[in-house]
């Protein structure tokens, strides 16, 4: 069971991206990280994505892994998609160059690859890029996904719309009996409001039936240093100090240094979720045309993926 994995305090979670619906990329990411030792995978709430992940696990001959699907609310950065205004765009190529997902090509956005990280928006000098939210309608996606036998649902409780957050949270609780995860950051909340929201969300749930994914700076991963992961550790410390009956996972800027820094700060975590950095270090390998036919490509991908997984599970 997933709870048993969390209780080892050595759970590595690969975040494929709540907005990432590139089926082939998902399949390759899950395949590489499953062989590298990952046993928990965070996926978009998309039946085809779930099927691709399961196919990858079968190919990797890994039969003890768990799948978590992510859903959010309007304005949650994890489900935003970049949109380019072609009246402003001068086709300078900066957005394509900086996109970690390879989601922009010749000033065209491949929506299925965009994860809403905001990097293209920050480098655009023409203000030609904006974002639209593509959150999932829970009535449409949840029943069929639950029927697939997923192991956890993660709800991204970002933003300030309390009514929307708690309406959707109640819907998930009413329609899924398994382990739930709350991905939450302090980006728009002070520490007191941050904890207050968590406490309200778990008050009707059984002890240790909820994961709190402490999201330091959402979608900020990419660099392997202590500074990048500092806020993830600081956010986790706030949750830990509250002594709540929950499992604790660190995310948001996480990398190979996260476990070390968390232990230095005496954070007793159950796992670490890594997305941007984990995808970045294997990208050039999983993008190769001969990925499935060239064992050397897989070995090179494993040479960078396995030390990251081992930084948590060992």
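Q: What amino acid sequence fits the structure above?
A:
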């Amino acid at each position: 069971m997933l709870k048993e994995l969390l209780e080892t305090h050595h759970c590595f979670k690969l975040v494929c991206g709540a907005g990432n619906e590139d089926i082939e990329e998902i399949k390759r990411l899950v395949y590489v990280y499953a062989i590298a030792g990952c046993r928990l995978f965070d996926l978009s709430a998309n039946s085809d994505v779930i099927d691709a992940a399961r196919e990858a696990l079968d190919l990797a001959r890994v039969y003890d892994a768990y799948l978590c699907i992510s859903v959010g609310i309007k304005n949650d950065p994890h489900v935003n998609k970049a949109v380019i205004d072609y009246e402003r765009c001068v086709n300078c190529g900066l957005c394509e160059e900086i996109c970690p997902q390879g989601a922009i090509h010749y000033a065209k956005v491949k929506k299925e690859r965009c994860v809403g990280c905001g990097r293209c928006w920050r480098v655009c000098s023409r203000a030609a890029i904006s974002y639209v939210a593509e959150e999932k309608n829970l009535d449409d996606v949840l029943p069929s996904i639950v029927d697939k036998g997923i192991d956890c649902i993660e709800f991204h409780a970002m933003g300030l719309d309390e009514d929307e957050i708690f309406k959707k949270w109640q819907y998930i609780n009413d329609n899924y009996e398994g382990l739930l995860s709350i991905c939450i950051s302090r980006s728009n909340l002070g520490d007191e409001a941050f904890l207050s929201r968590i406490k309200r969300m778990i008050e009707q749930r059984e002890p240790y039936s909820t994961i709190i994914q402490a999201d330091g700076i959402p979608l900020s991963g990419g660099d392997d240093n202590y500074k990048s992961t500092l806020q993830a550790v600081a956010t986790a410390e706030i949750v830990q100090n509250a002594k709540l009956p929950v499992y604790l996972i660190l995310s948001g800027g996480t990398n190979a240094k996260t476990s070390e820094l968390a232990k230095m700060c005496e954070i007793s975590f159950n796992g670490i979720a890594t997305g941007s950095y984990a995808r970045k270090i294997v990208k050039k390998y999983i993008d190769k045309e001969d990925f499935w036919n060239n064992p050397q490509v897989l070995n090179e991908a494993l040479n960078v993926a396995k030390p990251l997984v081992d930084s948590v599970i060992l």
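Q: And what stands out in the fold?
A: The CA atoms of residues 27 and 167 lie 33 Å apart.
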